Amino acid sequence: MQPEDVAGDLTKVLHTEAEIQARIAELCRRIEADDAAALDEQPLLLVGVLKGAVMVMADLARELRIPVEMDWMAVSSYGSSTRSSGVVRILKDLDTELAGRRVLIVEDIIDSGLTLSWLVENLRSRGPRSVEVCALLRKPEAQRIAVDVTYCGFDIPDEFVIGYGLDYAERYRNLRAVGVLARHVYEHEETDAVELDEQEDGGVPAGEG
Ligand code: IMP
Ligand code: MG
Question: Does residue 111 have an active-site annotation?
Answer without folding.
Answer: yes
